[in-house]
Specification:
Layout (H helix, E strand, L loop, with lengths): L7 H20 L15 H32 L6 H26 L16 H21 L6 H21 L8 H19 L9 H18 L6 H23 L6 H12 L1 H16 L2 H9 L4 H22 L1 H4 L5
């Protein structure tokens, strides 16, 4: 089989998404969400973190959908449902349980049952595996001659979003196997899949350059300021704006603007992104369970996020590099 194409635009978007995730984790102590470590709530950092969090994970799932769609449609990969389950279980579930079990033992705020509800930051791995499981169901439908068209993909985006709203409204957020999160993020996966199917990355319309700043500004307004609209509608608008941002970035970045040296650096960080994600949150937990550091970051809340970011980025990146270098360790971070 032909070696899969490396997309420069996808590499940039994945590194950007990972950078936003690290930045978000660097702000979690200041947005009041980390009750487990007595987090404080600074309104400014709260809004910044929420803005990042609306984009980062949706972009990551969008990228997964795009790559899956490209490999499935144009490289004849993932044609057997068992291949999807096997490959994604190795890349997602093995790291989830390998690191999740020690987290359930070490951190007092975790319990064994949380392994089945998404433990700590690793819930994303469990959720993403669920998204691929839904994809397997679509493959099985396709095998039964249910033709998977662009229209069907768009319909699934809408249906998935509506189901996600229903589950998030009437079901507890930590639902078994992250079902509600799967339904919320599945549309982002399908948007990426449809973009691959329609070869959106090869389009270069000028409107993308013009409208992207306005779309980002619109998302900023809907996150930063209270809007006199029903929350469900506000959430829908935010999510759609994020999808538009992802599509426009894909179009713009596909032009190929990086030098060869920069591209190598970006692709190296991209290859280490799984380990960076796993080790980043562990680094943050170690910082805030150390009383002296906890007190320092609480007092110095203005500069705290700028100090936390390099702590949460470079040591985990180095650790990810070490794990990726050795075959006996690589499998623990999805390698």
């Amino acid at each position: 089989m032909e070696k899969p194409k490396r997309f420069e635009e996808i590499s940039i978007m994945r590194v950007l998404a990972m950078t936003m995730i690290v930045a978000f984790h660097s702000l979690c102590f200041y947005n009041g969400r980390w009750a487990k470590v007595n987090a404080i709530d600074i309104p400014f950092w709260h809004n910044v973190s929420y803005f990042l969090n609306v984009i980062d994970l949706n972009m990551f799932v969008f990228i997964s959908g795009y790559l899956y769609g490209y490999l499935y449609i144009y490289r004849n990969k993932y044609r057997h449902p068992s291949d999807v389950i096997r490959i994604k279980a190795r890349r997602l579930l093995i790291p989830y349980f390998f690191w999740g079990i020690p987290m359930a033992i070490v951190w007092p705020w975790n319990t064994w049952t949380k392994l089945f509800y998404g433990i700590g930051h690793l819930w994303f791995l469990l959720m993403l595996f669920g998204v691929f499981t839904l994809t397997v169901i679509l493959q099985l439908l396709n095998a039964q001659r249910v033709k998977f068209t662009g229209k069907l993909g768009i319909s699934l985006i809408v249906i998935g979003y509506l189901l996600g709203l229903v589950f998030s409204k009437f079901v507890y957020d930590g639902q078994f196997l992250c079902i509600n999160k799967i339904l919320y993020y599945f549309p982002a996966f399908m948007v990426g899949y449809v973009c691959a199917k329609l070869r959106v990355g090869w389009m270069l319309p000028n409107w993308s350059y013009i409208t992207l700043p306005f779309v980002i500004l619109g998302l900023f307004v809907f996150v930063w300021y209270p809007i006199p609209l029903p929350y469900t509608l506000v959430l829908l608008i935010r999510t759609v704006l994020v999808y538009v941002i992802c599509v426009e970035m894909l179009i713009i970045l596909s032009k190929g603007l990086m030098s060869d040296r920069t591209q190598r650096v970006v692709q190296t960080i991209e290859q280490l992104s799984m380990g960076l994600y796993i080790f980043n949150q562990i680094a943050m937990d170690l910082v805030f369970t150390t009383p002296v550091l906890h007190q320092w970051f609480e007092v110095h809340w203005m500069i705290g996020p700028f100090v936390l970011f390099p702590i949460g980025f470079f040591p985990p990146l180095l650790l990810s590099y070490i794990f990726n270098k050795y075959k006996r360790l690589k499998w623990t971070i999805g390698g």
